[in-house]
Task: structure prediction
Amino acid sequence: MKFRKGVYIVFFFVGLTLFAFSLMPIFRNFHEDTFWIMTLVSFALMIFCLFAIFYKPKDKIKLNSKYERKRQLITRPEYNFLQTLREINPSKYEVLPQVALFSVIDKVTNAAYRNELFRTCDYCFVDRDTFEPLLLVELNDRSHLRADRQGRDAKVAAICSAARIPLVTFWMDGDLSYGTVRRTVLKAILK
Result:
């Protein structure tokens, strides 16, 4: 970028020099035919170079981190479980994966601070016609046995309880058969 501006500065002074020569009486007397052409070309060159020197494109947003697209939204076991959930009355319910709490819960007090709603639930059952959120579903693996994850899970459960949206938790190493999952989900939705 600096090199390009340097070139424009050089061309600006070339245009300024040509413009100055075109206005000298000696040049006018010897080159009367080209006087106007040289004056206009040198003036246009100076204007173009000034514009190029002082033009600032809109600043691009500079990021302090590197980002890349994930290869998949959910893991293969989560996808398989999603397929099981979608078999539960598909004419009545839609199941959405990876739903943030702020998408289904509004904070009505201290609304400016919604940090606790930036947590994600694995699945959300919504009414197929109205898209009303009906049930949140978590599919936990062994990482949820860690103290930090248990704190997060307790916070999510408390928020869901306060918002009166049911939350059901399944464990990857638990009973994930269709019958058990269906009974648990429908019981929670119909409460």
